[in-house]
Structures are given as C-alpha cells and as structure tokens.
Amino acid sequence: MHKEEQGADSGHLTGFGTPFYRNYVLLLLMAVYTLNFIDRTLIAVVAQPIIETFQLTDAQWGLLYGPPFAIFYAVMGLPIALWADRGNRVQIISLCIVIWSLMTAFCGLAAGFATLLFFRVGVAIGEAGCTPPANSLIGDYFIARKRATALGIYSMGVTLGAVLANLFGGPIAQMQGADVGVWLSSVGFDWLFGGLDWANIEGWRIAFVVVGLPGVLVALLVWSTIKEPPRGYSDPPTAEIKARPPLSEAFNELKTKPSFWWMAIGASLVAFVGYGLVSFQAPFLQREHGLNVRDAAINFGAPLSLLAAGGTFLGGWLTERATQRFPTAMAWIPALGLLVAVPAYIAAFFVDDLYWVFILWGIAAVMHYSYLGAQYNIGQGVVSNRSRATAIAVLLILVSLIGNGLGPYFVGFMSDYFMMANLAESRFAVELTPALCQAKDSALSGGQIDICNTASSTGLKWALAVTVCGFIFAAFCFIMCARTLKDDFVAELSHP
Predict the structure, then answer these.
(1) Annotated domain spans of the chain
(2) pLDDT digits (tens, 9 = 90+) for 318-362
(3) pTM
(4) Architecture of the domain spanning 10-238+247-488
(5) Does residue 387 register a pLDDT over 70?
(6) What is the chain's alpha carbon radius of gyration, rounded to the nearest angstrom?
(7) Angstrom distance (rounded) from CA 475 to CA 266
(8) Closest Cα partner for 392 from 217, 133, 203?
(9) Residue 24's closest CA among 225, 214, 233, 313?
(10) CA-to-CA distance for 160 and 104, rounded, in angstroms?
C-alpha cells in the first residue's frame, strides 16, 4: 500500500498542510512537551521542602523521584506507542495530557510518602503517551531534511518546561498557606475550599495544584485544532507502508540498526546523569549556598533551564547544517558537547562564588542538552514510517529505566554514602546518621546540627561530581553510533 491520500505524492517535498499550519502544530506540540516537563520536574523544584516535610534521606528522595516513575513510564510507553502506530495520535495525546495534569494536581494532596508515590505513578502513566505519538506526527508533518530542526524545536519543551516549573513553582512553593487563604478571602473564593485551614498548608502543595490543572485546557486545544495526517505523508512516494505492522516487525527492523542501539545507550547514560542532576539541583543550591526555594528557582533553576533550551535548539540547528557536509554530524555533535560539559559541571559544584557557579553550570547545560534533537532524529530516522512511534517508545523505555529510574537514586545513595563518610570523621561519629540528621523530632545539639548540615552539603556535592562523569561513557556511545549511522538512516542524510 502506498500513500493514503490523493495528492500525497508530493508530500515528501512540502510536508503536510500549509507552512503556517505546520509551524502552528509544531509549536503546540512543543507546548504540550513543555507542559509534560513542567509537571514532571516540578517535584524537583520543591524537593527540599518535600524532603523536610516527610523527613526523607537523600536515598529515599532519589527512590521517590526515580524508579517508580520510570518503571510505569516504561511499562505504559510501549503499548501506548503501538496504539499510536495504529490509532488516532491526536486523541491519544489529548487523553494523556488530562491524565498527567490531574495526577500532578493530586500530588499536592499527598498525605505521606506512599500517597505521593502513587500520584507520581499516575503522572508517569499519562506522560508515557506524549512523545511517541508526537514524534510520529512530526514525522508526517515535516519532510526528512526539515525534521532535525523541527525535532530540535519540539525537544526544547524539556528545558522550557524546567524554566516554567522554576518560574512558577519556586515562588508559589515559597508562599505561606495562610497568605493564600487571606488572598482567596479577599477575592471572594474562600467558599470553594470549605473552610480549609490554610495555615497548615505548605507552599509546595499549592504549587502542584496550581501548575497541574491548566493542562486540561491544553488538552482541549490539541484535540480541537490539530489534524491527524495520513501515515507516511512526508516520506517519498515509493516508500511502502503497511496498515497494521506487528510489533515483531518493528523489533526486527531495529535489530539491524546498530546505530540506534549505540544512540539509545548513550542517550540513556545522558539521562542517568541529567535526571540525577535535576532531582538534586535545588537541594544542592539550598544546602551548599544557603538559597531558599524561590531564589534557587528564580535565580538559578529558570535561567539555567533556559540556557539548556538554547543548547537543545543549537544542537538541532548545528546538526541540520553540518549534516549537509558531514552525514554523521548528528552523532558527533552530542559527543563533543558532552565531553565539554563534564569539567564545566564539576567546576560549578566546587566553586564558592555564586556568579561562577552560574557561569560554569550555564556552559555545561548548553553543551549537555545539545544531544536531544539528535536523539529523536536518529531514533525515528533509522526505521520506516510505520515503526517510528514504536522505535521512539523503545528509546524512551531505555532512557526512562536507566536515566530516570537509576540516576536520582544513584545520586541520593552516593550522597548518603559521602555524608556518612563525613559524619564518621566528626566528633559525633557514633551518634549521627543521615536519617537522624533529617528527623524533625531528634534532640540534636547546635554543634551536631552544624555537622549534619556540612556533611549533607559535602556529600551531595561529591555525589553530583561522581555522577556527571557518566557523560564520558555516553560520548563514547555516540561516537560508536556515528560509525554506522549513514548506512542505517532511511532517508538521505546529506545533499549538495
């Protein structure tokens, strides 16, 4: 079977729809991906208040942030992707936005570790249905040589989401519940909450509710304004497509693409480091440099995330232009960026001056996130059009399990390990543990509290430094990907 719609024979030259409409769809999908990461990363912005509320060690926090979310994200990702390769991708995205938005709002109602964990799982299930169908849609809206830039723009949602999570989540989390209650009374909306005692409501809970609920409106906009394009519309007319490809066909195709697997391992290692850094960025700034939740979010979290978004776009832009002369540039550019990021990150962790912390972390972020566009371009570019969503789902399963699943817990575990090592060298080595330091009701002396704080800060700093060295192995994987990329890519990578 060939193209599904009359007039689609020229789709590989123009893409689906008018240029204006294609750009509108791309920007709306980027907004969806941005919302996805706002809701996903908000918990990292308010990490320290949650740690204090539930009296968690860093390892416990890493466990809460990472493995459960990653496992359910991975488990649901593949069946949703298979659904997207057969069903209406626009409807799937709309439904999933509603699910993860409501679950994000419910996180603010968590009564403890277990209930917060349950709602985070709900967020994971909803977000699993975002990227595979969105990537498949972009593949049908844009011709092959325009997809690197399109996917780079779409991928900006990762870091733009982090920007907005910091801009809104940080200040809201710094608010006092009593102040919110007074404001609601002043505007006449206090009756909505049935006499809720706002004095006992922490700011981080309010942040989850305020940030989560608007997603329902975005879902309605996607459902009502994005058209479902024919499968393979923007591929060459000679490319044959099958109506209902079995899962085995997609995997058989992937088995013959070593560049995909090298890229997937590399991207997973990048995510391992990236999620580890994100989950503990705010606690590091608060412990090491004494910032509050708002200042850490506004002065560092938001601008650093914006720089990372710029790195994502820059990576896609450089890739599209370099590929015209160097077909494997989309693999080499991420490798070089990651190698530059390693010393920049480590220096940022150990300098005392906040000005240099920002400069060094900013350089590292730009270099770090230059890989995202290449990740998705390679992921869908090495398979036929009917297997794109499945290929992206396989990629995201690995990224989620290795990156989000292990990265935050590894950082937390190493932080507690280094913290214990610091405590063991103190004069209170016998009495103090990470759990005792974190407990609210522990009767610690002033000297013990100071030692706990120093050990907590130092432990986290060394944990982050060790973790970021994973970029070296990720860069090696992208270099290996480049060796077979030209042969594995379905479309022509370069042109005169």
Answers:
(1) 10-238+247-488
(2) 877 777 777 788 888 899 999 999 999 999 999 999 999 999 999
(3) 0.77
(4) Up-down Bundle (1.20)
(5) yes
(6) 23
(7) 7
(8) 133
(9) 225
(10) 18
Neighbours of 25 (CB within 10 A): 24
Distances (CA, A) of 369 to 97, 136, 315, 333, 389: 24, 22, 8, 11, 22
Of 281, 329, 335, 273, the residue nearest 305 (C-alpha): 281
Query: 9: helix, coil or strand?
Result: helix
CA separation for the pair 99, 90 (Å, rounded) = 15
CB distance 463 to 419 below 8 Å: no
Distance, CA of 419 to CA of 417 (rounded, Å): 5
Query: Quick one: CA dihedral 480, 132, 160, 147, positive or negative?
Result: positive
d(CA 426, CA 317): 51
Own/partner pairs, 450-457, CB within 8 angstroms, 24+ separation? 451/423, 451/426, 451/427, 452/423, 453/287, 454/422, 455/419, 455/422, 455/423, 455/426, 456/58, 456/287, 456/415, 456/419, 457/284, 457/287, 457/288
- Cα(64)–Cα(51) distance, rounded to whole angstroms? 10
Smallest CA-to-CA distance from 293 within 202, 211, 378, 384 is with 202
Rounded to whole angstroms, how far apart are CA atoms 192 and 375?
A: 46
**What gap in Å lies between CA 107 and CA 86, rounded to an integer?**
33
Residues in contact with 6: Cβ distance below 8 Å, sequence separation at least 6, in sequence order = none
By C-alpha distance, which of 30, 44, 39, 38 is closest to 407? 44
Per residue in 261-274, pLDDT (tens digit) is 999 999 999 999 99
End-to-end CA distance of the chain: 31
Please provide the DSSP assignment of 417-458 as one string. HHHHHHHHTSTTTTT--HHHHH-TT----HHHHHHHHHHHHH
What is residue 388's three-state secondary structure? helix
CB atoms within 10 A of CB 168: 18
Q: Provide the 3-class DSSP secondary structure of residue 330.
A: helix
- Answer whether residue 493 shows pLDDT above 60: no
